[in-house]
User: Fold these one by one.
Assistant:
Number 1:
Amino acid sequence: FFEIGHLDKLKSWLSWSWTYICAVWFAMVLTMIYVLRSPLKLQDTLTSASVFLNTLTPKFYVALTGTSSLISGLILIFEWWYFRKYGTSFIEQVSVSHLRPLLGGVESSTTTGLFSSVNGEAEPRPSVSECKVWRNPLNLFRGAEYSRYTWVTGKEPLTYYDMNLSAQDHQTFFTGDTQQIKAEDTVMQKAWRERNPQARIRAAYQAIEMNHECAAAYVLLAEEEATTITEAERLFKQALRSGKREQRVQDPVTTGKDINLLVYIKRRLAMCARKLGRIKEAVKMMRDLMKEFPLLGMLNIHENLLEALLELQAYADVQAVLAKYDDISLPKSATICYTSALLKARAVSEKFSPEAASRRGLSTAEMNAVEAIHRAVEFNPHVPKYLLEMKSLILPPEHILKRGDSEAVAYAFFHLQHWKRAEGALNLLHCTWEGTFRIIPYPLEKGHLFYPYPGCTETADRELLPTFHEVSVYPKKELPFFILFTAGLCSFTAMLAMLTHQFPELMGVFVKAFFSTLFTPLGFFADKMESFMPSSFWHQLTRI
């Protein structure tokens, strides 16, 4: 330990002194150049260079500055495009990735190190799951909803990355647990991987021809081929019957994937009932599913239940569900945090007035509502702009990133109507949500009630959301230095080119005056060096 401590001190001393050593070395180089100016014939070189520059016509300077402006403008355009697409500067990224190791720098390793918790103590931050992509609990039906959007607008609401994740989910849930894969299961495995929807549908019919009780094939047809929710519900009921019959004839040891399939089918049937207006039936199906399979909490069926209960305006039941799932030991979501804020805001929002609150102060109930809103906004700061309709909504993706823009789109798409139904709730949100950012000094370094906001959400959201949607970025990124620098350089050189073309003589006088002023301190320093050192000393140095 003693040797390690001394080694660290030595390294810190060397890194501290390196700056000053470089400065001394630079000063010595300048001094040697000045001393050796006669043997190196620097004066003659400078004289010949000045004569050559004086013979150049103003057209040369116009071409020089114009070319510089054009090149810097092209760099500016590329840098701006790269920043808009990837959120960083290309020159800065290359400098950090390639030049820093050559200069002896190291990458910062604090991103996965110790972070401050709410009580101020250092604790390890989980870096693996902070940008994990989750299945959207309320994802729409491809054939009955996503395809309709494509027919009307001609735009694809789902990205290939999102659909590929869904294919992996289906393979894992429906065909990944069998020890002896059947022929129809092999066909369905290929069907989920097909990129073309028609190829997937043809593969599903092929699997049904092999086995009329292939539940996974009916699931695919319900998701992709059905053009209405009623038709999708009919196919899901057929899949449920086939799945139950298949489960009865199989050995109980090999029914793991059948259980996953049945849970998926029952959940989608409940969602069909919810979309067709049979909300109480949907709530009962969801409650039964949660009682029958309590260990499948990762499917987040309670979020479907919360949305259905809010539609029924059964706020007491919503509070009971939140009491179970809004626990400090359980993972949070925008649905949990914002539903909790909605219930507390609903209790005070009808009579809330910003002017009255500023005069008399906030009551206890109003303070609780504001704190709940601040908590929700800290968890996902993208949601309020969609709820307040400051940003346009799109169809939610099939997968979401918690605390990201994709989760905000998915939450607001289904829950905006519930906030509008609570009178004054959106007004309270509008008055208080921006106050959250005054509580958090800098979200990427230190959180308040949650871990610091992850910095990888923008990249993942760009993969999940379609290209026609403008991804919400938090915290707002400032323009990189190199974009500002190239913009200034382009503008400055373009102005010089224009002025040189219009006023060549005046610009010549200005340039000469500028350089004479620039080199005046160097001349003053040289004169002082001549007067300070004896001439014989300089003569001996030049001879050496």
Note: Confidence is low (pLDDT under 50) at residues 103-129.
Number 2:
Amino acid sequence: MAQSPTGDNLPLRQYSIQYQPSPSPLTSQASPITSPPPESASSIPLSQVDTESAASLSWKDVTVSFEQRSSSPQVVLDGVAGYAEPYRMLTIMGPSQSGKSTLLRALSGRLCRKAKYQGDIRINGRRQQLTYGTSTFLTPDDEVLPDSLTVKEHLILSAFLRLPSNLPRKEKLAVAEHVMSEMGLTELAYRYVRKCPHKGISGGERRLVNLAVELLIGPSLIYFDDAFKGLEGASVLSLLIKLKGLARGGATVIMCTEHVSSQVYELLDDLCLLSNGKMVFFGDNIAAVEHFSTAGFPCPPNHNPSDHFLYTIGAEFEKLRAPFLYVQDAEKAEAFAKEDHHQIVNFLSASYQSSDFNAALVCKVNTLVKKKGGVLVNRIKRPASRSEFFTLSYRSLLNTTRALGFYWIRILLSFLYMLSIGTIFLRLDHSKSSIEARAACIFLALEGMIYLSVGGVPYMYNEVKMHVREMVNCHYGVANFVVANSIASLPFLLLISLVPLCSMYFLAGLHSGALKFIYFVVNLYLSLIVSESLMMAISCIVPNAYTGMILGSCVQVLFMLVGGYVRHDNNLPKAFWKYPSSYISFHAHSLRGMFQNEFLGSRYGGHTGAYIVYGEYNFPASPGKWWSLLILAGMAIFYRTLSVVLIRLSYRVRSLTRTCIATGKT
């Protein structure tokens, strides 16, 4: 493997994760907000700081509200101000439903369309749109990784997906190696990214892998929503040290969390406290303790400041506040314990507005607005669409090959199922009594094979969910993902169509002609492709894999009922069942083609094949069996195209659900 390049050999800014701790709260003196002095080049632990991509973010009077049908608009953020700069990490903290995630999404430009936004957000003193590679947004809610890949494989393939096509292969591999080393993932390089006690990695390590993928292109702005959700102990500390290392390396890091331990709190830099959409404090972590003490809410000795803030401004602790609220004055403590949560928040917010900390904040924000910096750019260009397509195809093929339960077990079950049908309908003759048996054999073989595709919904759901997460940070296009996923499935579907079918076709004694057998295989193959495409489209609209399996089963059964075997075509009620259900059911087109292929041109007990197909089973005479194949191919293309549309809508709907329906959730 190529060695990690240094200096100018690296095609993007090198982040170093070497962490130098901030002064301890025990030895430092609290002071109002001051601009962190720039570190000298020798003290910055990275090879070269890219000044063109440095980002100073400032905002003031940020107000976000959502329309309510039955009442006045709900204000989620109310006049919030602040800033974030390189070399210091900003932590947005507060109780649930305080507006943390809403503020983070407002700063990253990811608010939903229904949110009404007011305020002034600037990057380097300018109003500008974020372009490719300048920012990244991470959230544990969308933490989905390809479980069949190792950490190293995932990072290398992500490098090929995100770095420019004209960058040599060795340099892409070197970038992946460098990021993996800096994030401390070298020892996990050959472990699978799935959660597994032996060969997998932990939840904290998975979060580091997600972060490492985003660092491949060196973003200047890193937004991390609910960074420590689901993590404990060493995992929290490890992630925090990596994030602080990125900030020390020149990135602008903004994260939000509800609560941290006392050890983690000592490592924080700047702090923004929110409650009920109001800003209670903005400054460094030590100054926050001083501000609460000045306002009459001193943190008890040997007590976690984060806990103290949460107990004081958290609505969920309103009825339990008395045991936790530490106020030196007994009468004042009793009065505050009886006060409403909103009154305490309003008091603390007003106290902050009149403090020196707020005056320093206003001065700092105004300075950043007046100081016009450069336009935020990233030298990294998106790879060519063709490069994205081939990389995605290889990744999908690797995933499906290693996913034991997706195709390999399905192939085994299909073989056993077809073998059972072949032995049940063993050696059918050409007598009149065999007509019904042949029809049942074809029907059961087709419907059983199609129905087994429902088992692939969990895998497809994870694939779609992973793509939606990657689409948030513009990894690649939707069309490339859908086409690559489709191509990767083709060889496995051909294997499923051919191997199990041979065991049934010849045991049952279906039509022995070579062309008849080839048509049967092609028909089944196209039917499985359509079924897979339909299941992918369903996976794009369901909230979880379990719901997708239920919905997929219902759709398949519905299409089976109007396929022409359970109820003949001319006997179906015309409203809904015949028009349009029987026409959009791919089961009907596939089954009609198989019946035409099996019976036409043969005689069974004095009955011609035409009489059996068109008279006894009442299939329409047109289209012919070859046209049925074209219709199936067209349906496969239609459902894959529908998947592209639904994935785009899914991204918008999930973003809308996450931001709007929550109406200010954290």
Note: The radius of gyration is 31 Å.
Number 3:
Amino acid sequence: MDTMSEARLQTQQRSSRNGRETSLWSSGFGMKLEAVTPFLGKYRPFVGRCCQTCTPKSWESLFHRSIMDLGFCNVILVKEENTRFRGWLVRRLCYFLWSLEQHIPLCQDAPQKIMESTGVQNIISGRAPGGAGEGQGPSLVKKEVQRILGHIQTPPRPFLLRLFSWALLRFLNCLFLNVQLHKGQMKMVHKAAQAGSPLVLLSTHKSLLDGILLPFVLLSQGLGVLRVAWDPRIFSPILRALLKKLGGLFLPPEANLSPDSSEGFLARAVFHEALAPLGLWTGALAALRSLRGWGRGRRVCARVHLAQPFSLQEYTINARSCWDSRQTLEQLLQPIVLGQCTVVPDTEKEQEWTPVTGPLLALKEEDQLLVRRLSRHILNASVASSAVMSTAIMATLLLFRHRKLLGEFSWLTEETLLRGFDVGFSGQLRCLVQHTLSLLRAHVALLRVHQGDLLVVPRPGPGLVHLARLSAELLPAFLSEAVGACAVRGLLAGRVPPEGPWELQGIELLSQNDLYRQILLLLHLLPRDLLLLQPCQSSYCYCQEVLDRLIQCGLLVAEETPGSRPACDTRRQRLSAKLLWKPSGDFTDSDSDNFEEAEGRYFRLSQQSRCPDFFLFLCRLLSPLLKAFAQAATFLRQGQLPDTESGYVEQLFQFLQATAQEEGFFECADPNLAISAVWTFRDLGVLQQMPSPAGPMLHLSPTFASWDNQEKLEQFIQQFICG
């Protein structure tokens, strides 16, 4: 769910207030009005499709072309037409009548289903520890199950649920101007729910209000009430009884959820059969806690994105067939960083940063890998289905010092849409830019220059850090081109000085094999949670995709060499032996070319007038992360080790802040970048984690204890950074 402030098409200029600087915010730009709409012609990107490789049946059965044309609806807009009644009294009571007509399915046989579940039956029959075989008869165990189940939940009361939904509807209308939902996305969820299998919903929680919006949207769209688990220690008995009647679930006191605990087997078995992750009350309290800040501001708009559902059973079957050999980051990159090897191994990177929890450790190693790869699929779908907001586009333009904000804002919006990412705004261009700047007014300053023009300047320090975080939301849309541009920069680093003219860089011939190598090196260096690569996609396929994107956007042009086959020759050719052993999932349209002929293919940087600025724009998208990595390599000489992971992250973050004050590049002063750098260096073998009485401690690897190897590491990272 993305929250955005009110942006009406009929936005008028507001009167000046609070002095001279405020008058600059409301002053006109003196430009011709141009409408920016969230679509190109009649085409609007439909985002959030599931993986066609791992779930082809879901990809096809839960989607139809007509879904794309259904458009948006406002889920909190309830009128007379939304009820069965008509009349002037209905128009005044439509919220209450609508809540009475909501269908709330009640599972009357839930206690019996839990009693008959496999886990509970194993304990009753004595086949599991803590059951009838340890001194308790089956009848006593059944009574204990009923007692635990009564503590966890009681049958929900439909009237209380409808009353609460009415109050929630009124509250949301006071808080939001509208809540948009794509009817096509909702139709796909309805199709999945009609299949009869349980529907599991995962939220990325981009806002504290997600917990109140998502359950309400699902209830209003006829998908029923979700249940949420609570810790009973934080509520009084009266409030706990009320919440249980509203559908709340409460953990029994003895339900220690750690899998290696010898107590509470029965409570854990019952609780695992009854828990669901979300409910109406999670966001209700969060919204009430933050009501003070929201109540003083203007009403805002919100959009709820729902990615395409897919069958977990289908994914489990197909995902296991896509596994291949993998190596650690230390095995892949460390020999190349130290100059001991120049060939990049033809294998995938093994890098899993999924939090290791008790339930995950209880699974088999094969199932753990399945869960981790499923999480990467879900993360990819959630990012792809999220709309890019106007503040992200404006922050990117301000960070890269674009002067013509009106024209560049329109251009960057169009480029985002062309890459299949949706945007969360529409309206007059001038009004959009003015409104977006008003949202960022705490982080930018407006200065009036000659002839009535306005100069927008980011405020140094925390303002630049905030703009960098907003700009990061735009990176997924341009990630392939950004990786390719930084790889080209690394390839040219040893030939042309970074400050050299563009014409000089365009003279250099870039072979396809060298481009593949540089792209692979950068792919291995960057964290997987940034790249958002799907587990079923090989690195080679992604390298070819990056190269194709650079050609499509006009940065690279093919160079015909004497005796080579023309690049435009698409006739069918015999597949080489090297291509035949590749898994079926690794084929793309461009893979039909002979691998051996890649050595004879060369490219040049395009000499079009727009290419230098676009190349620099793409390189700077990855600059905050890469510069944080480079500064982390520099910090190896001053860091205090051994230290805990959190302690060393804090050391590095303070160093990034101090460096930002000296150099004026505040985009790196982000604690998340410090965490990514420490984790990457740990995987690379620069830092080693060793046990100690105080817990795991980070030590500097003996290999990188020498300044010479530290310098090699820093130079390896610096080659991808464009000044």
Note: The CA atoms of residues 574 and 650 lie 56 Å apart.
Number 4:
Amino acid sequence: MPRRRGNLQKCDTTDRSFTISSLEFCLSQLRKADPKLVKKAIASGDGLTESKDDVSTRLSEAHRYAVQQCLDNAEQLAQLHHQLVHCDNVFERLQSTLNGFQSSLGSIGQDMKHLQMQSHHLHQELENRQKVRVELSQFVDDIAVSQTMMKTINEVDANERGFLEALHELHHKITLIVQRGNGDAVAVNDTMPILEGLKLKATCKVRDWLLAKMFQFRKPLSNYQVFQHQLLRCRFFYEFLLHHDLISAKELQDEYIDTISKMFFTYFKAYAARLFKLAMKDVATKDDTLGNIDSAKPAGLGGLFSSKQHVVRNKATVFSIGQRHQILSEDFLGALIVPHAATQNQHAYQFEALFRSIQLAFIDHYSHEFLFITDFFLVNNDEAVDLHTKAMARAMLVVLKSCEEQIALSWDAISLHICICLCDRFVEVLAEREVPDNSDYWSNVQDLLWSRLNIVMGQHYDSVRSVDLKKLMSSGSLDARPHFIVRRYAELTSAHLLIAKTSKKEMCDKMEAVLENSEDSIEQLLTRMSAMQPTQKNKHVFLINNYDLILSIIDDEDSKHSKVYEIVHELEQKSIDDFVEEVLEPHIGYMIKFVNECESLLAQGHTQLLVRYNDKVGTVVANFNAKWKPAVDSINSECIQLFTNFSLGTNILQMIFTKYVQYINRFTKILSHDVFLKNPVCSQLVNVHQVMLEIKRSKPIY
């Protein structure tokens, strides 16, 4: 009965739910409807006139129907109820099982945490024990002195490899004990006396061995670099002394510096004495100056344009450089000169070759010694520089003195200039090797060279300024052709320019001043010589030929940018311009004068004054028409014979004819002025194109 009542309550609830949902649906539809239609329906009362009794009747019928449905399905509902009760029991047992499992899992988690804590503690204990074991083992190894090490230090020779290894081990033990401190370890107090005894024995053996090696440097003809190599192989010997016996280390350092300093002094003194004996005997002397005319050849051109045969002096080159500049490039780092071998082969050398050899030997030893000192004595910066300076000071002085003596005897300007450039190259080599260059030494050497070069070049200037022109006139060497003094100057200047180019540096101000002074003295000499020429035309030809000789000798792509080349080129152009005017004067001087005067009046705006030149036009035109063709032939034949350089003569001839045509054009332009238009003579002037055609026909071909 209760089950039935429950079913009826369920049906009643279902019916009530259905009614409420229907009502909600109706209300939702009502919200969407048109308010006016709803209002009208309510007002009319359609569908709302059903009585209350009818509604109750319908609801009772629906209730009875629902109850009947529940009664018809009573067995199924009862079966469903039994199944639900059974499921509740099963779920209750499952819940109790899961609760038990959950409690078991909680206890397992606690056990795992406990095991993890135990594992962490065990791991920490293991690590601590291992650290203690490592440090303790290391400490025991550091303070333990083996019988093998003691025997090696006491009995084995210092040259043996085993002694070096034992020395490393001894140094390691002493250093670690000192760094850690004695502390409370009783074993350290037991070990230190033994280590101190071994250290004393080792320092004595090492000191004696190093001193013995250094004394070997003093043997005559010994190769000291072999002994240095042996010292470097046992460099730790000195390091051991530096750490454990500073007094002995300082003693060895002073002994080495003193020994090597004396050795280098002896070596370079002997090498310089033997080396400079190989100098060429036939070198430049005080009399080999630019202006010395006593040793000159009879012909003014030195045989270039003369058919006579002259005897060539068997003398070292004084003014031309030849291949001597190669010492600055290809031969710079070549082999050193070995005096006894050169003497046997009867070789002789220019001063710059000897200078290169001794200075190259010096910087080689200088560089090697600096590297050895920094490597063996474990020094750097200022301390290394000080030691190195002490080691090389004596050798530096003897090399400087030897070079000073030889420089003072030199009269070869080319050689002196090459040596100056060699000094710059040596400084660059030292910089590449990362060795201090000792600027004071190279400054002293260059000062000596510059001072001597200025003296030698001063001799050349004075000799040029004091040339006896009467003596030249009497010897017949003063004509319009290039002079041998100018050729000397050109070759010497070309040598200086080539040296500067080969050194791959811009010419310094000192050398520029030397070349300018030399050019000034030659310019003054040429001015004096040109004044001795019989005619003004010969004067210009003489200057042009000599200036052209200078430019042709120093004609180089780099030399063209030098000040000397620019100065000489300007002087040549001025002389050529004067010569062109001088050549044209006898042939069309009347036309030149007429053109210059008329153009001056036109430039000043005095055109009314041109009227007075109307009568002169006829004379100018008549003279030109009668003489222009012979003038072209005369100019052509004259210029070919005047210049020794055929190419130069052709260019000057072209310039003369160009100027010739320009004067004709300027004259023609003046005749086209209004003042001369009515003059009938103007139309009689020879056409300029006819003149140009004749010039082209007579143009020489070389």
Note: Residues 61-138 form one domain.
